[in-house]
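User: Predict the structure for this protein chain, please.
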Amino acid sequence: MRPPYPPPPERSLELRRRFAEEARCERPDLSTLCLLLGAEADGTLDEAGMDAAQMELDRLAGLLPFRPGGPRAWAVALRELLGDRLGFRGAPGDYQRLESSLLHEVLRRGRGLPILLSVVWMEVARRAGAPVYGVALPGHFVVGFGEPGEQVLADPFNGGRALTGADAELLVAGATGAALDPSMLVPATPLEVVSRILNNIRAWAAARPERSDVALWAVELALLLPAHPARLRYERAQLLVQRGDFVAGAAELEAYAEVVEAVDAPAAGRVRQQARAARAMLN
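Assistant: Here is the predicted structure, written as structure tokens:
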């Protein structure tokens, strides 16, 4: 199964430096962040491969008609090109593949998770001048075109099928059992998109204990984002201990306990006890 191997340590350090730098830009570039993430997963993705992926997005944008019209016309143009003509879409089996969360692999295979297919839609449409953005519906990411009053939603996982308001309500109800709230339809920022991609990768790895290596780099990239839950440090500490790095894991547990102390002293005590237990494993 691809991707086969992670990059060597020195390459990983450079990728993470660039990822953190891009994430802190005034206007982070979504495709760049996704490709740096992909290179952390797949050691075969070198600079030429990342450049080729960007050029492929440019090429696809060049295949779209020039400014076809309003939001609905843009949605139709993207569906006809990416969904109908080129066959980009998803299937249930794609949820079982790490490649489905990696932009360069989604471009190669034409298959992926809803959020990565949406990244392809967004990046191609953006390059062509479309008013496009991601919409982070609970459980199923889609794309939107146009302003709120004229918003058109499309589902890249289903080949770019246009979504009615009722369709969106069904997606949300199926994922959460709750009603669709207007706040769910606001555009997602690039960092919110990347954070959700990393959450998906962590969930994939959590179901596969033998892939704790993937879980660890996904957590560590998430920690490089400007805003992240403090609890990610606890997750990283647990992974380090699980992987046998007891000293680093214990140190991370103690650092997390310091953060938690002010709001939940008993929880901090429990975390410190875990740190002592991790250190004891060295004996």
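Residues 9-190 form one domain.
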